[in-house]
């Protein structure tokens, strides 16, 4: 079956140069965006129950822009002045760049990984005497605590925000040829919003092994998956599939 419409379970890209807009123009398909999940900050009252004293830490591990935002938000609400000599270990260049929103970059000790947490641990290993704080969501990938424990460093997890299912009730009678997911939480949201969802002719695209597994565990068919050696990005995987589907 031909592909005419796609729903991407993420917010609308903030940049006009998004590859999704190029894909829409080149393949003449309609692409809509909608967050199936969103994050909400945890209250100061709840955070205090975790009994964590910010003054005890010499380094912060930042795995996402959400972690950056919520850490500095809570620090301000708790009237904690982040020391100038605090060390920041950022999982990617994007996270490190975003950190400039809150600190003067050139005056801070900032260490940047190469996208994956495993790459970041190579830097953490070189600074084993630090006491690390890990600002986190309520859904933390098991890999992260496993790798930190394996390093033998002193670290503490601080839950600052939680992943929440978005209300998608207005999409009940709207149908798309392809639904695109990037996390197991997206699949969870699909069924919380539409418990009787039947895939039928809808194609499902999934990014990452955990998302592909969540699709299958939900009894759905995964028609498109990324990354792969041939299609390292979701837009490349979609384009390959659309070209083949639409030439029939």
Jot down its keywords:
248 residues, alpha/beta, Rossmann fold, 2 domains, 5-stranded parallel sheet, 9 helices, 11 strands, 33% helix, elongated
Describe the structure.
It contains nine helices and eleven strands. The chain has two domains: 111 residues, 3-Layer(aba) Sandwich (Rossmann fold), CATH 3.40.50.10090; 124 residues, Rossmann fold (3-Layer(aba) Sandwich). Helix 1 runs parallel beside helix 9 and helix 5 runs parallel beside helix 6. With 248 residues, the chain is of the alpha/beta class.
Short description:
The protein is α/β, with parallel strands linked by helices and 248 residues long. The protein is 33% helix and 23% strand.
The helix-and-strand class reads alpha/beta
By DSSP, the count of extended strands is 11
Which architecture name of the largest domain does CATH use?
3-Layer(aba) Sandwich
Number of helices: 9
- Domain count: the total is 2
Q: Taking Cα atoms only, what radius of gyration do you get, to the nearest Å?
A: 20 Å
